[in-house]
Amino acid sequence: MLSQLLFLIIDFLKFNSVIQESDEIRKAAYLDDLTGLPNRFSCDLIFQMYADPSSIKNIGCASIVISNLVTINESVGRDSGNQVIADFCQILEDIGKDLGFVGRNGGNEFLFIVEDCNRSKMEEFFQSLNKRLKRYNALDLNDKIEIYYKYVLNNEYHAERFSDLITEVYQRLHTSPRNKQYQ
Fold first, then answer.
1. Exposure winner among 29, 39, 99, 105, fewest CB in 10 A?
2. H/E element holding 81?
3. What is the DSSP-derived secondary structure letter of residue 183?
4. Would the pTM of this model clear 0.85, i.e. be above it?
């Protein structure tokens, strides 16, 4: 009886470690190590959620870039750049998590997707983000965060596929003048 209890405890401990390891693997597959935000793979899974054209009718999609990250990395080092990314993601997630999907699409680029979105909702989000960045930068704790962004509202653009919406937001981001939306 005692040996059975001992083996039961051992089995339980092994099972518990397997569960913890499984959780860590799942997190590594879907979450960015540095920021804890959904990673590029997770962004791709979100894209698949919107395969039906009716599901994207009122979607808003924004791409946000930390515009001074390369300068920070080159002038004071990657550790400082990583701190800026982590700090920015904390702010971005805090503001955006209740509105929609916030993910790191790689490097200094982030994705924000909002269902049932209109211009007012998107502008309010960016006003809140800019206000928080202004407060963060005023604290002068780390390097300042500067961003630029572009967004597309599908109730104005009328894409048939989510991939077309994403393509449009990236085209706007990378071909429009890089005027700083916030510094």
1. 29
2. helix 78-96
3. -
4. no
